[in-house]
């Protein structure tokens, strides 16, 4: 991570200042101040392509990043120099991370919105993005900063090790093992219920046929 | 598309079924004793299942057992009807020209034909008894749960584990330090020393900026340092309200609210749990909070309303 804050400032002036203001203190009603948001926020929003955003009143959605890696590092270095939390270090591979614990924590803290399969969904007023493309670092950054309307998770609620376990589960959920064999596109319990209904309807039809039929005289 | 599929399926099943051979002329039919015995057995089993439902209701009202026994009773009753309809009752097709019914003497003939419908069934009285017994017991099973609507219900529903000074704990029974909750975070808490399964037990605690608060006038001081508590049980159907949205920048995003994942009832956390979207009929009950000398969260009284899903007369 070797960003050049000077070049980051130049990139900021061409790409970001129309909404966040010349001194990055935000423009009332359009965009928030970037003083104090830290490198973690900048890295999350830029590497997921959520910033820059065309319409400041729409929900930022994941797209291809607008900048190359070096430019992102420069921008992150500039925003980081304005103060705020550092990019969290996540070690998903090392340590003794339990996938089962990750799933349990994901179920408790994340699955209500993102679904247990991590495929996202809806809530009132916003849509919930899928985690299919999220890297472990982005998962941990999102939990700590709470982007858009997502709540934040502090150290007391989920410590670094627990967050890393969640990030590992998210990686697993991209290509889960399906012992049952019928994954139904990994979209979670709602379509599974739908399939159950369709099978149930078929069974009901068979029962109706067995009960009798109306014969023409 | 689905309707076409179903129509095609029905047509296919109709084609596959061999045409039923009807006995020519007036059917002379021996009673089918085996089918009758099977029907009796099924009716007896349906009675037993219905009785088991009533027994479970009083002994161990676990909804799994109740659902299983009642479902079984219905399945057995349906099976008895199926066997009776296909094997016990004679199947005769009678074609009668109309409008001869105007003449009284021909009416007698019709009555005679109808009376023949009962031929080929032995032990009719026993049948009537078994069918009536099954219907009666199942009716009783269906009515039994109405006992829950008695005066006992109000006592159970108004029970609350919360009172002034009751400590809030996590799922692992650890006290919750107020300073550990940051703005934009949601924490699930329970009353210390109480049953976590109780519908009034789980609460959510969120922290907002104190200047965002827009609580009703009589709830001043219920949210120290912007920490607000609400019942976690949706007032609509009793699901756990587990989705939380807190905008990182207010002017361009929807406001702070908790959302029930079942039917998307949405409650504003800054306005005392006011319902702002969805089917819920009333606000989320708010729990007054306080911070004790050790910096831990405690309740400062009971909920602002009854926690849990709606029922008749809940507003009284």
Most residues in contact, chain pair and counts = A-B, 39 and 41 residues
**Residue share in helix of chain A:** 40-55%
Low-confidence runs of chain A (pLDDT<50, min 5 residues)?
Answer: none
What do we call the CATH homologous superfamily of the largest domain in chain A?
Cytochrome c-like domain
Helix content of chain B: 25-40%
The CATH superfamily title of the largest domain in chain B: Rieske [2Fe-2S] iron-sulphur domain
How would you sum up the major sheet of chain A?
Answer: 2 strands, antiparallel
Label the overall shape of chain A: elongated
Taken from the alpha-carbon principal axes, the silhouette of chain B is: elongated
Overall tally of domains of chain B: 2
Number of helices of chain B: 6
Question: Structurally, how many domains make up the residues of chain A?
Answer: 3
Rg over CA atoms of chain A: 23 Å
Order of helices and strands of chain B: HHHHHHEEEEEEEEEEE
Give the integer mean of the pLDDT values of chain B.
85
């Amino acid at each position: 991570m070797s960003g050049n804050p000077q070049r980051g400032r130049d990139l900021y002036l061409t790409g970001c200042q129309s909404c966040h203001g010349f001194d990055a203190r935000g423009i009332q009603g359009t965009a928030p101040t970037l003083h104090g948001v830290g490198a973690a926020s900048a890295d999350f929003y830029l590497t997921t392509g959520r910033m820059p955003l065309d319409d400041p009143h729409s929900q930022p959605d994941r797209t291809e990043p607008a900048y190359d890696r070096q430019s992102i590092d420069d921008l992150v270095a500039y925003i980081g120099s304005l103060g705020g939390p550092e990019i969290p270090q996540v070690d998903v591979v090392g340590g003794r991370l339990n996938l089962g614990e990750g799933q349990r924590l994901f179920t408790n803290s994340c699955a209500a919105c993102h679904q247990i399969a991590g495929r996202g969904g809806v809530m009132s007023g916003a849509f919930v993005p899928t985690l299919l493309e999220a890297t472990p670092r982005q998962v941990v950054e999102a939990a700590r900063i709470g982007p858009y309307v997502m709540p934040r998770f502090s150290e007391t609620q989920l410590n670094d090790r627990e967050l890393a376990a969640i990030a590992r589960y998210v990686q697993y959920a991209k290509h889960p093992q399906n012992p049952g064999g019928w994954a139904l596109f990994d979209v979670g319990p709602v379509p599974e219920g739908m399939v159950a209904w369709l099978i149930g309807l078929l069974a009901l039809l068979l029962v109706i046929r067995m009960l009798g039929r109306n014969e023409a005289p | 598309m689905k309707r076409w599929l179903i129509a095609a399926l029905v047509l296919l099943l109709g084609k596959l079924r061999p045409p039923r051979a009807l006995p020519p002329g007036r059917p002379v039919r021996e009673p089918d004793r085996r089918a009758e015995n099977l029907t009796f057995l099924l009716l007896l089993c349906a009675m037993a299942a219905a009785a088991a439902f009533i027994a479970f209701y009083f002994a161990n009202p676990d909804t799994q057992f109740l659902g299983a026994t009642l479902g079984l009773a219905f399945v057995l009753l349906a099976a008895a009807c199926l066997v009776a309809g296909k094997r016990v009752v004679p199947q005769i097709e009678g074609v009668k020209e109309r409008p001869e019914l105007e003449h009284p003497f021909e009416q007698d003939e019709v009555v005679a034909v109808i009376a023949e419908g009962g031929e080929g069934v032995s032990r009719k009285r026993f049948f009537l008894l078994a069918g009536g017994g099954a219907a009666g017991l199942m009716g009783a099973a269906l009515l039994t749960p109405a006992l829950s609507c008695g005066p006992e219900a109000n006592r159970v529903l108004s029970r609350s584990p919360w009172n002034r000074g009751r400590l809030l704990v996590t799922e692992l029974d650890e006290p919750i330090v107020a300073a550990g909750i940051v703005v934009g975070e949601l924490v699930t808490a329970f009353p210390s020393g109480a049953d976590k399964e109780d519908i009034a037990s789980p609460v959510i605690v969120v922290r907002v900026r104190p200047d965002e608060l827009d609580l009703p006038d009589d709830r001043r001081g219920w949210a120290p340092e912007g920490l607000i508590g609400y019942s976690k049980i949706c007032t609509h159907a009793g699901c756990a309200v587990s989705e939380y949205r807190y905008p990182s920048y207010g002017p361009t995003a929807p406001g702070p609210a908790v959302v029930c994942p079942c039917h998307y009832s949405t409650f504003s956390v800054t306005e005392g749990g006011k319902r702002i979207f969805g089917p819920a009929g009333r606000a989320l009950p708010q729990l007054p909070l306080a911070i004790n000398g050790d910096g831990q969260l405690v309740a400062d009284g009971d909920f602002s309303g009854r926690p849990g899903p709606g029922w008749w007369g809940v507003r009284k």
